[in-house]
Write a structure and sequence with these properties.
Helix 3 packs antiparallel against helix 10 and helix 7 packs parallel to helix 8. The mean pLDDT is 96. This protein folds into two domains: 128 residues, Aspartate Aminotransferase, domain 1, CATH 3.90.1150.10; 264 residues, Aspartate Aminotransferase, domain 2 (3-Layer(aba) Sandwich), CATH 3.40.640. Strand 1 and strand 2 form a beta hairpin. It has a seven-stranded mixed β-sheet with strand order 4-12-11-10-7-5-6, sandwiched between helices. The chain is 36% helix and 17% strand. It is of the alpha/beta class. The chain is built from 13 helices and 16 strands.
């Protein structure tokens, strides 16, 4: 097969490929990437863009990293894949051991899957099967937070925001869950105990039918990029303990340092019963996710009628993915990642501060390596992206939000270019 030209690639793309959250009857052109290195994407026309999205938040070490390349190449020479049913291998064993050591106690059982959404499916299934095994099948509902986002598969969609989220079109076909108001207590502001009133009321009223509470600790991601107080998370843990309800922490977006802590649960000093990991797990090289649980949960499931956990992805614990995940974790822990994230946070606060003066801006907020400018109205994604590309940066706005989550290795001058581009484009919008 001959190598297609850029125009041929774009023609094939326009005719056959369905992109995420995109229309095929009113398509928007996609930009063709020829290569990626460090924090830059090189387009097929030769233009280079600073990637402020870390490829949807996962390439924390940047692109084409020698250590990650070496890990995946070395594993490829041994085996690219082997089924995980009845077999195991060194990369999976090493990765499971690392995750157990890094995550809060008593999370010590690891179930590997293919993507973040599937890790949430696994977590929900764990919670439901746990209570079935305890002879309490009536505990079959999930309580989730409004403005939350947990993925695009069906069980995951059911715990995303039911009204303002991207999945409201499926209302009526999804499992009906219970929702509490989004946390009103903002990060780095005095905590108001009244902010947990609705959470407390909902858990208390529905405890007999609740299998679990599911939330994104500290940062609500694609549901609105909202940052809330650690005290709310601590209260959620205490309420779940009091009412015999499991707690699921979705750390897919926040895990591996994004908020300034290795895991966002550390801000509140709590441990969930079940934790979902993904995105940065492999440093952005391959799709891989993990769902961790306590021995209480695993024993509760395995002592039930089925005797086993009823799930098994074909590419579970893929050796290539596990190998590069091990290398990514080594790379992270051996680096001064805390200092880097703290430095990025300060640069984002300074660089985005001028946006607060734009009349079209509703809010500017920064936490760790996350910078968010919330507009008063939804933005034209295609138009804003085109303007940002003209400034040499790549960002992917959604709804009212223009935000960035850069790789941790990004240098100050590149962050300055990113924030300056945002300030300019937002100023033009306003």
């Amino acid at each position: 097969m001959s190598t297609p030209t850029t125009s041929q690639i774009q023609a094939i793309d326009a005719q056959h490929i369905w992109h995420p959250y995109a229309s095929l009857t009113n398509p928007v052109s996609s930009y063709c990437v020829a290569s990626a290195n460090g924090v830059r994407l090189k387009l097929s026309d030769g233009q280079e863009l600073i990637d402020g999205m870390a490829s949807w938040w996962c390439t924390i070490h940047g692109y084409n990293h020698p250590a990650l390349n070496e890990a995946i190449t070395a594993q490829l020479e041994k085996m690219a894949h082997v089924m995980f049913g009845g077999l195991t291998h060194e990369p999976a064993a090493q990765l499971a051991q690392r995750l157990v050591a890094l995550t809060p106690e008593p999370l010590d059982k690891v179930f590997f899957s293919d993507s973040g959404s599937v890790s949430v499916e696994v977590a929900i299934k764990m919670a439901l099967q746990f209570w079935q095994s305890q002879g309490r099948p009536e505990k079959s509902k999930l309580l989730a937070l409004k403005n939350g986002y947990h993925g695009d598969t069906f069980a995951a969609m059911s715990v995303c925001d039911p009204d303002t989220g991207m999945h409201h079109l499926f209302k009526g076909t999804l499992a009906e869950q219970i929702f509490t108001e989004a946390p009103s207590c903002l990060f780095d502001t005095p905590f108001d105990p009244a902010s947990i009133a609705d959470l407390e009321a909902k858990i208390s009223a529905h405890a007999p039918e609740l299998a679990a509470v599911i939330l994104e600790p500290i940062v609500q991601g694609a549901g609105g990029m909202r940052f809330y107080a650690p005290e709310y998370l601590a209260a959620a843990r205490a309420l779940c303990n009091r009412h015999d309800v499991l707690l699921i922490a979705d750390e897919i977006a926040t895990g591996f340092g994004r908020t300034g802590k290795l895991f966002a649960c550390e801000w509140a000093g709590i441990s969930p019963d079940i934790m979902c990991l993904g995105k940065a797990l492999t440093g952005g090289y391959m799709t891989l996710a993990a769902t961790l649980c306590s021995e209480k949960v695993s024993d509760g499931i395995c002592q039930g009628e089925a005797g086993v956990f009823m799930h098994g992805p074909t590419f579970m614990a893929n050796p290539l993915a596990c190998s590069v995940a091990n290398a990514s974790i080594d790379l992270l822990l051996e680096s001064p990642w805390q200092e880097r994230v703290a430095s990025i946070e300060q640069q984002l606060k300074i660089g985005l501060a001028p946006c607060t003066n734009s009349p079209g801006v509703a809010d500017v907020r920064v936490l760790g390596a996350i910078g968010v400018v919330e507009m008063k109205k939804a933005v034209d994604v295609s138009g804003v992206q085109k303007s940002l590309i003209a400034e040499g940066v790549w960002l992917r706005p959604f709804g009212k939000l223009i935000y960035l989550m850069p790789p941790y290795i990004m240098e100050a001058r590149d962050i300055t270019q990113l924030t300056s581009a945002m300030v300019k484009v937002i100023g033009e919008l306003s």
